[in-house]
Write a structure and sequence with these properties.
alpha+beta, 7-stranded mixed sheet, globular
């Protein structure tokens, strides 16, 4: 066996072709895969991009058979020139592994022994509560697979999966039911993140308010004779009798509800070969199923994993690069004792400055970890709201709540817009149009030009031009009042940026439509 930062090389005498293997560094499993067929007696396995970026240092590299666990090859390796031990960990020191989403993340195997116990205890409490409310809830996904196939949670899993069977078949009624469930869970004290109108995620925190574990709750329903379980599953391979009345399965000594016929659900989700471990398995979602589910239920969790990971392990509030100038300009605009919404507050650094100047501030962000850091550094009992820009309904509800106070609200939005998609920016602008009444203004900052360090999965590397801003604001009834351009130092080097003051448009709707029409003709 040999290894470098590009690939792992094994001989055909060590490992066979098409064999599931676990790859470990110093005893920690970091990746499971299936070996390709050998070429001239050598099996060449390229490292995943996310893992390759972390290969730096010395480690005992071992390859194990996934099914039996026995070691197939062991060797001390050195990646790069560092003599330090290789550490593929997060900022809290927890070992990471490649997840089913093809990225590094914390998994049950890399956490302390009590995480699985806490996860199962949380699942038991949640299942009991939902059963009390009348929801037929049952284990699904990797959780059910691990218990039926091996009698234990999958070591490479990172959460626990439930679904419940809805009596509804109309997507609109399913959405309504999902909101009702979210309200009940929130009232019961749960922190709920909405992935879609048919998928809720419950987040659980440790004593330091850091994320500890998750539980997913999917809505299952029958539509036109097919069992649907967004985000990925739709077919007639499962009947209602396969799901309810639910059975029970023992998970680490705790009884949890399961489908009436667990094997039928597993064959429906993973195919007839579900009993054989396949580390490379991914859901092959048909385009028709994907488009149907996204049209019916939306997608509201884009980008959150990046920001949770970005804020994880941090405890000091340093603020975004554009925040200082935006705060200074906002302080010049606002009268004393104003109300301010810090939208995309991050660690809350700039909200503290605004409050020190005598203003009342509400902080909003959709990262649990960012809000944890903001709470940790807050000495003024600041109002912290978790708001998701992916979710138009949630943003408009926020705007309505601010309007209900009867006072003008100023808005700080520092280094947020360039990291949003077009649809999400439109959600923000619709909310601003509601809120910016009378003298109220929004001060926003964003990077305006591309960077050579662009990475699609890192929204900090995105950009947003002033032309795009002006056009989108006009369509949503807003306009630019003033612009400041400059160059600033960021985590990714020097970048050109803009600081813009936004107000509600003074043009009549007919004038805005004429301007848009004229612009479109010029572009054409």
């Amino acid at each position: 066996m040999k290894a470098n930062r590009r690939r792992l090389l094994l001989t055909a005498t060590e490992v066979g072709g098409s064999q599931p293997i676990d790859i470990r560094f110093d005893g920690h499993r970091v990746w499971s895969t299936v070996t390709p067929d050998p070429i001239d007696g050598v099996i060449s396995i390229p490292w995943p991009d996310a893992l390759r970026a972390r290969l730096w240092g010395v480690s005992e590299l071992s390859v194990h058979d996934t099914v039996g666990g026995e070691p197939l090859a062991v060797r001390i390796v050195r990646f790069g020139t560092s003599s330090k031990r290789l550490q593929i960990t997060d900022k809290r020191g927890t070992w990471l592994a490649m997840t089913k989403w093809d990225r590094l993340g914390p998994v049950l195997e890399g956490n302390d022994d009590d995480v699985a116990a806490r996860l199962i205890a949380s699942a038991a409490r949640l299942a009991g509560l939902m059963q009390e409310w009348g929801y037929p809830i049952y284990l699904v996904g990797g959780t059910l697979l691990g218990m039926v196939r091996g009698g234990a949670l999958l070591p490479h899993d990172d959460d626990l999966d439930f679904a419940y069977l809805s009596d509804q078949s109309d997507p609109a009624e399913i959405v309504r039911e999902s909101f009702e469930l979210e309200r009940r869970l929130t009232d019961a004290g749960y922190a709920v993140a909405r992935h879609s109108h048919a998928h809720l995620e419950l987040a659980f925190f440790d004593e330091h308010q850091q994320l500890d574990h998750y539980i997913d709750v999917f809505t299952g329903f029958f539509h036109e004779g097919q069992y649907c379980q967004p985000f990925a599953l739709r077919s007639d391979a499962v009947t209602r009798e396969d799901l309810v009345p639910t059975s029970e399965i023992e998970v680490n000594g705790v009884l949890l509800p399961a489908p009436a016929n667990p094997e039928a659900w597993l064959a429906y989700a993973y195919g007839p070969g579900w009993r054989v471990p396949d580390p490379t398995f991914v859901f092959d979602v048909a385009s028709g199923t994907k488009h149907r589910f996204e049209s019916w239920f939306g997608v509201f969790n884009r980008g959150r994993f990046f920001w949770e990971k970005h804020w994880q392990g941090k405890d000091l509030a340093t603020g975004s690069p554009g925040g200082a100038g935006a705060v200074r300009r906002l302080l010049e605009i606002m009268p004393p004792d104003s109300d301010v919404l810090d939208l995309g507050c991050g660690d809350g650094r700039w909200a503290q400055e605004l409050q020190d100047a005598g203003h009342h501030v509400v902080c909003a962000d959709y990262s649990f970890e960012a809000l944890r850091v903001a709470r940790l550094n807050d000495d003024r009992d600041t109002t912290l709201w978790r708001i998701n820009a992916n979710d138009r309904t949630a943003l408009l509800e926020l705007g309505a709540n601010l309007l209900d106070t009867g006072r003008p609200w100023y808005v700080l939005c520092s280094d947020v817009l360039h990291g949003l998609t077009l649809a999400n920016r439109e959600n923000v602008y619709l909310m601003l149009r509601m809120v910016l009444r009378g003298p109220a203004r929004a001060v926003v900052t964003f990077d305006t030009h591309p960077t050579v360090q662009y990475v699609r999965s890192d929204p900090r590397t995105w950009h947003y031009s002033l032309r795009q801003l002006r056009e989108e604001l006009t369509e949503d009834g807003l306009e630019v009042e003033e612009v400041h351009r400059g160059v600033r130092r960021t985590e990714l080097g020097w970048r050109r940026y803009a600081r813009v003051v936004i107000r509600r448009s003074t043009r009549a709707p007919s004038e805005r439509r004429a301007w848009i029409h004229e612009r479109d003709e010029n572009v054409a």
